[in-house]
């Protein structure tokens, strides 16, 4: 039993030792991200951010066994794992496929003309809106990764580039609906006040009444 536990500990330690940190992952793949960014005018930060998010910085099973760093589904020839995800001969080919995929889909291709190669926030939101991922928080997660690891430094932004400011959300105050009551035969202020959990004095004040006299069909503000 002790030997089994020792073997498990050794295996776990070996795995942790071989596992890349996110910083090491960025260092390894920053060059190809920048090359693709320069060629296709897309932020390198987006390429890296999506890859880190979808592959857990190269630690996910599909990244380790299928070289799939962008979560693409499809056929694979792997004998090591059973998966519904596509395999790639190299990690770099997975990166290239990401650009090919975006350019081959109408709802992603428009982003290349719509946004510049530095506005990673607009790209992340546009890719999400195009249906790249089901999660509603996907874009905000990718943006958070870009900010956390300062991936925008790989975008080669001009010195005078100003990052677009997100518009502040506009909150519209709800208009309070005014309740009214139509006086019926036999009603009086006391009955109406009790029924609507208010007071005679409040009813008279809201409606500018000088006496308790009411007429059927008369409308009262409550």
Structure description:
The structure is a single chain. The chain has helices at 2-18, 22-40, 44-55, 61-66, 91-104, 106-114, 120-129, 138-148, 189-195, 200-207, and strands spanning 180-182, 219-221. With 222 residues, the chain is mainly α. It is elongated, with a radius of gyration of 31 Å. Residues 9-18 have low confidence and may be disordered.
SSE arrangement:
Elements: H1 2-18, H2 22-40, H3 44-55, H4 61-66, H5 91-104, H6 106-114, H7 120-129, H8 138-148, E1 180-182, H9 189-195, H10 200-207, E2 219-221
Antiparallel strand pairs: 1-2
Helix pairs in contact: 2-3, 2-5, 3-8, 5-6, 7-8
What can be said about this structure in brief?
The protein contains 10 helices and 2 strands; from the N terminus they run ααααααααβααβ.
Keywords:
two-stranded antiparallel ribbon; Membrane-bound Lytic Murein Transglycosylase D, Chain A; 2 domains; mainly alpha; about 220 residues; single chain; Lysozyme; elongated
